[in-house]
Design goal:
It contains 10 helices and 16 strands. The protein is an alpha+beta fold and 345 residues long. A hairpin with a 5-residue loop joins strand 14 and strand 15. Helix 1 packs across helix 2.
């Protein structure tokens, strides 16, 4: 399917998006944990997001800002992403921390390097990125990168809504036959359900079952089967492009992994991310019918945040001219402000 990136608009989710969201998420073979194609669940997520955009927020709390990517030419949703003000809170977030230990016996001159998995819980953790999904029909042309980076632009505009640090967790390895090697080595021994059932339950319900049922003692990685050891900290093949995007932003693996599939956890300082550092604020001097040159990522500065790809030219006084298409996508006119990401060659 051939798509025009300039027809793509990223905006906050609306109540009227529910049916389209259901259709979009059903296109995922195994739904991402944070977004399940369950109507009541999605309705709650939409309502939570609408409340999060309340104008008066002085510090980060339970807010989760849910964005969708809309093909404005077709009126079709093509992707999702969200950014949460902070992890944990009423319920802690859980990961496994990889801890490296050294055991040494002087008399026999024997040294062993043993890696352990320690269950780690965090009640008031950093802001979190999640829910990133782009329909296969729309991959390419910089659309996926725009969907990921829009959250950094939003956080730069409204820093009081987020913590200093931000983290993100990626899906772990699943084999072509649908087996999750890490789960088979650990989780299956403590739960009566299969991986995908538990993964969905983790998204739809309370997480106190993790506290009650997961092993309480450290797990020696060297005692796990090789198939499980090989995937610890490795992302799902479909997540590799998203991993590269956040690595380019300055995120680094922090030796923590998902407790079910061992997908990697990355972390960064929001103000030090590439998008935050490179983004610029400007006044729109003129809206013109068309502009030459490549498209850049640009967004409105209102709380009803909108982002699109389009032509932007910078004037001598650092104001900008934008195309009519971009102005329409962002709901802007001459005299308004915008935030944009200059082309990075």
């Amino acid at each position: 399917m051939e798509t025009n990136p300039e027809h793509m608009v990223i905006r906050p989710v609306r109540e009227s998006d529910l049916d389209e969201l259901m259709n979009l998420l059903k296109s995922i073979p195994h739904s991402i944990t944070s977004l399940q194609p369950n109507r009541a669940y999605l309705q709650t997520k939409i309502e939570d997001s609408l409340r999060s955009f309340y104008p008066v927020v002085r510090r980060p709390g339970p807010e989760k800002y849910f964005f969708v990517l809309e093909d404005s030419a077709l009126g079709r949703l093509a992707g999702t992403c969200w950014i949460a003000a902070r992890t944990g809170g009423y319920e802690p977030s859980y990961t496994y921390e990889i801890v490296k230990n050294v055991f040494r016996h002087e008399a026999l001159d024997i040294t062993s390097h043993i890696d352990e998995l320690h269950l780690h819980k965090e009640y008031e953790g950093p802001s979190e990125l999640g829910g990133l999904y782009l329909h296969p029909d729309y991959r390419g042309g910089g659309i996926g990168g725009a969907l990921s980076r829009c959250r950094f632009l939003f956080a730069r505009l409204f820093p009081e809504r987020f913590t200093r640090e931000v983290m993100t967790e990626f899906r772990g390895v699943v084999t072509e036959s649908g087996e999750v090697p890490f789960w088979e080595a650990i989780g299956r021994h403590f739960f009566i359900h299969d991986f995908f059932t538990l993964d969905q339950y983790s998204a739809l319900a309370r997480k106190d079952f993790i506290r009650d049922l997961m092993p309480r003692h450290p797990i020696y990685i060297q005692l796990l089967p090789q198939s499980a050891r090989d995937v610890i900290g490795k992302p799902h093949a479909a997540a590799v492009p998203a991993v590269k995007v956040v690595e380019n932003e300055g995120f680094r693996f922090i030796n923590q992994v998902d407790i079910f599939d061992a997908g990697p956890v990355y972390r960064a300082t929001l103000s030090e991310t590439s998008t935050h550092q490179r983004s610029r604020m400007a006044r729109v001097a003129e809206v013109v019918e068309s502009l030459p040159g490549p498209s850049v990522l640009a967004g409105s500065t209102a709380l009803d945040f909108r982002v699109s790809l389009g032509a932007v030219t910078v004037n001598e006084d650092e104001s900008v001219n934008i195309s009519q298409t971009l102005a329409k996508n962002l709901g802007l006119e001459s005299g308004d402000n915008l935030i944009y990401l200059p082309r990075h060659d």
